[in-house]
Design brief:
alpha/beta, 11% strand, 12 helices, single chain, 8-stranded mixed beta sheet
Length: 301
């Protein structure tokens, strides 16, 4: 994070929307000495910030006019349009950074709205929970015009580590969705594995020591890093283990789940995807060949 600017050099910022994440953003900006204006539909949510020196605007338009940059984190894109419907004239010639979640299509539509209205726009994503906002390890993703990102980067660095992903306005929200996909899939994998050993009376904490502290970083993480570049080349050498061999392991997981009386859908789905990849001619390749199945929409979906 940038920490060398003096308080008098800090750029003025407006935060619109003071849910838990919006409050965290505002607190971090105040802590870094930014002159801060805030607005929220429930005005009382700004009381603690006002007590610390923030200015409470009477309207969204007044809030936008108070700063060259407005940061918003609302429930979704539709809420953003509703909130800023009366402030489009105020936005002209200024910058808006949107940190709510959604889809790439929605991000592109927001970028088009900004172009029609006449203001700079960056789409973004917050990759940490509210308590970590403002810390060096907090990663924020941004996409859109690089010049807009460069102009406001010192301010964005007050929130955490700003990562620019390119000019495509939908890239940040796509990364966000992909990382959340990884998070939920990983958590579900651990939960299912804990349920398996738990069926034999093994505490989850005991299992976690081996699974999380050793197996994931030593085996899974290392394998993913080693194979990532090969995915882009569709190169899946099976000399150290074929997909056919891995199907057997997946079948064992499915059968064990049935025997132990735990939920079977997750391993069964993994087995089915592997079997589809084998049916498509990838049986002699390594397990990562299932990527060829996952890259395509499921037939009939």
């Amino acid at each position: 994070m940038t920490t060398t600017q003096s308080t008098t050099e800090r750029a003025a910022v407006t935060v619109v929307g003071l849910g838990p994440m919006g409050l965290a953003l505002a607190e971090a900006l105040l802590a870094q000495g930014h002159p801060l204006t805030v607005w929220n539909r429930t005005a009382a949510k700004a009381d603690a910030l006002v007590a610390k020196g923030a200015h409470r605007a009477a309207s969204v338009a007044d809030a936008v006019l108070a700063s060259p940059l407005t940061i918003t984190c609302l429930n979704d894109y539709d809420t953003m349009y509703q909130v800023f419907a009366g402030a489009e004239e105020a936005l002209r010639g200024r910058a808006l950074i949107n940190l709510n979640s959604g889809t790439p299509t929605e991000a592109h539509a927001a970028d088009e709205w900004a172009t029609r209205t006449g203001f700079d726009y960056l789409d973004g994503a917050i990759m940490v929970p509210p308590p970590l906002v403002g810390t060096p390890g907090a990663v924020f993703l941004y996409s859109g015009p690089e010049g807009v990102f460069t102009t406001h980067r010192p301010t964005l660095a007050s929130l955490g580590d700003p990562r620019f992903l390119g000019a495509d306005p939908g890239r940040a929200v796509l990364y966000n969705t992909a990382l959340l996909d990884l998070m939920y899939t990983s958590i579900n994998g651990f939960l299912h594995a804990a349920a398996l050993v738990g069926s034999a009376g093994v505490p989850a904490a005991t299992f976690a020591d081996l699974a999380v502290n050793w197996f994931l970083p030593t085996v899974v993480d290392a394998t993913l890093l080693a194979q990532a570049e090969e995915l882009d080349r569709s190169n899946y050498p099976g000399d150290l283990g074929s997909l056919e061999m891995n199907r057997t392991a997946l079948e064992h997981i499915t059968r064990t789940s049935v025997e132990q009386g735990v939920h079977v859908d997750l391993p069964r789905l993994a087995q089915q995807i592997a079997e589809q990849a084998i049916a498509e001619g990838h049986g002699d390749k390594n397990y990562f060949a299932v990527f060829e199945v996952l890259k395509k929409a499921r037939a009939g979906a």
